[in-house]
Amino acid sequence: MQNFTFHNPTxxxxxxxxxxxxxxxxxxxxxxxxxxxxxxxxxxxxxxxxRKALEGFELLxxxxxxxxxxxxxxxxxxxxxxxxxxxxxxxVGGGSVIDGTKxxxxxxxxxxxxxxxxxxxxxxxxxxxxxTVLTLPATGSESNCFAVVTRAATQDKIAFSSPLIFxxxxxxxxxxTYTLSPRQIANGxxxxxVHTVEQYLTYPADAPLQDRFAEAILxxxxxxxxxxxxxxxxxxxxxxxxxxxxxxxxxxxxxxxPQDWATHTIGHELTALHGLDHAQTLAIVLPNLLWxxxxxxxxKLVQYATRVWDCxxxxxxxxxxxxxxxxxxxxxxxxxxxxxxxxxxGEDRFGEIVDRLQARKSLPLGERKDITSExxxxxxxxxx
Length: 384
Ligand code: NZQ
Ligand code: ZN
What we know:
Elements (H helix, E strand, L loop, with lengths): L10 E4 L7 H4 L5 E5 L4 H4 L2 H8 L4 E5 L8 H14 L3 E6 L1 H13 L7 H5 L10 E5 L11 E6 L4 E6 L7 E4 L9 H17 L9 H23 L4 H14 L13 H13 L3 H15 L5 H10 L8 H19 L15 H10 L13 H10 L2
Parallel strand pairs: 1-8, 2-3, 2-4, 4-5, 5-8
Antiparallel strand pairs: 6-7
């Protein structure tokens, strides 16, 4: 096992009715800026629940945070928070609202060009405290120190991290997810699945506990994902998917093990250039990346096929391939196509993706840093 430091300071309040706990979690006397997206929280009653729980608090609002939140829009929220001297941020929504609010938390006290926090990974020395009410289980953003922000003007979609942007608390009420569309449910399950795979499917690192944590999350998503699609108000299924998504990217399963974030890195370019949803890109890239990297990842791929997909028959090569096919079939069954032709992204655009990765100095990718520009092109060609 590799050395690691594990510290997750986010307090999780899980279950139906937990939005009422906001009164105790938000500091007394805080000037709260409530942030949200395009209006789903107003349509499904979450906004009213939040306002009721915070009766008596000074509450400002900043809405309109887009899926794949943009620097340009978020800076309006930063200006508002500065002008109104907000001192606590409350993000109510999915990963985009939470990520956008994390950026705002770091940008509000920042002196200088705020985009540097994202693009140059300049470490913020301060950030406003924030909490979240999660309405879309997917990203794990509610309990981690990462955020992904897009600069619309240049189509740059970039992740940054800082220990200062961990939410102080996150409220996870599965009932808030009942109004999600099948597309967003599928996206959430696939995103959590791929987060788990990217911290698990590398090479053996004598870390059986982390392996079994990861396998437990994957098996649970395989069981519960289809149940959430079949019945949007299945509380047990919604709860299980929600907890899986948090556990998939809160630092626990990745502690002490090699990681491979190549699928996400390639996927971010597909979103920035072609507007695909985040998880739609992952469903396309991951199965093809696993195939191209099958020699590097052989031992863990066989373990994955055997323990996660119960592929017991055949030699290693056969089981390994069955595991990759099962992954693709699962994504398709959830409703996420695994080929680019479903989104009309042609082969002529692949070079641009590689050029951008090169310009960002992101290449080579992978746990062994051997996913070169040629391999990215091979992955994309398989994904046509
Ligand atoms: O904007 P509103 O009106 O709220 O609608 C949203 C949005 O249109 C809607 N929605 C959310 N909760 C709902 C709901 N609709 C009905 N009922 C509800 N309960 O869903 C749409 C998508 O929301 P979004 O927040 O964009 O989705 P998601 O949670 O998948 O977040 C995706 C973003 O997170 C980043 C992605 O790159 C992308 O920008 N990621 C963040 C990570 C992190 N911070 O650790 C890791 C991930 O890998 C990912 O990169
Ligand atoms: Zn993701």
